[in-house]
Amino acid sequence: MNIFDSSLNSNRKLKYYSVEVITFDDESYTIEVEARSAEEAQEIAASQ
């Protein structure tokens, strides 16, 4: 396995992220999402 393959495999691993969501009504709640990166976790949380 070369370094390129190794980095691709590590990027595919999903992790759990706790994301705080703040609504337009100034309500706040935390949800847990499974994603590959923090940016992806934010996108998933925002879409819910």
Explain what you see.
By secondary structure, this protein is an alpha+beta fold. 40% of the residues lie in helices and 33% in strands. It is built from two helices and two strands; from the N terminus they run H-E-E-H. A two-stranded antiparallel ribbon has the order 1-2. It is elongated, with a radius of gyration of 14 Å. It starts with a helix and ends with a helix. The N terminus is likely disordered.
| Average of pLDDT | 81
- Reading the helices and strands in chain order gives HEEH
The percent range for helix content is 25-40%
Counted beta strands: 2
User: Which sheet architecture does the biggest sheet show?
Assistant: 2 strands, antiparallel
Topology diagram in text:
Blueprint: H1 3-11, E1 15-22, E2 28-35, H2 38-47
Antiparallel strand pairs: 1-2
Features:
disordered N terminus; 40% helix; two-stranded antiparallel sheet; 48 residues; 33% strand
